[in-house]
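Incident review: delayed structure delivery

Summary: a single-chain prediction request sat in the queue longer than the usual turnaround. Root cause was a stuck worker, restarted by the on-call engineer. No data loss occurred. The affected request and its eventual output are reproduced below so the record is complete for anyone auditing the incident later.

Affected input:
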Amino acid sequence: MNLRVGIGYDVHPFVADRPLVLGGVAVPSARGLAGHSDADALAHAVADALLGALALGDLGAHFPDTDPAYAGASSLGLLARVRDLVGERGWSIGNVDATIVTEEPKLAPHVAAMRAGIAGALRVDVERVSVKATRHEGMGAFGRGEGLAAMAVVLVHRENA
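Output delivered after worker restart:
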């Protein structure tokens, strides 16, 4: 069996008057994330990890923020399109491990729904998707609450040809 690993990273600043969407879940918050699409940093990190595993560039190369077609787009929809690219090349998704870094809001109550959102977009069992949240303990831009970051690692596999 052939195996590949990819990593993804995404960061967005917080802005007022925008919903906070992570893993397709609207998380109650006074602020959302700035971005061209729905700015779902978690979905973006997972998509970049998948693209990286197959050396297919990054999310911006496939869905540029200069294209009005992606204004306000669902990041889970974009992730599903990346899933299709993976499948078209004969690869299957093994698992996803993701971490979100933010001081607020508290994400623990929403992690199960985020896992389900990512798993649904990828068409994998939710047991293959891990989502965790951590804080920067007041240090740096994330610690000051200026924004949010998400990181993901994925494993993809295919049978030997």
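Verification: The longest helix spans residues 75-88.
Action items: add queue-age alerting; document worker restart procedure.
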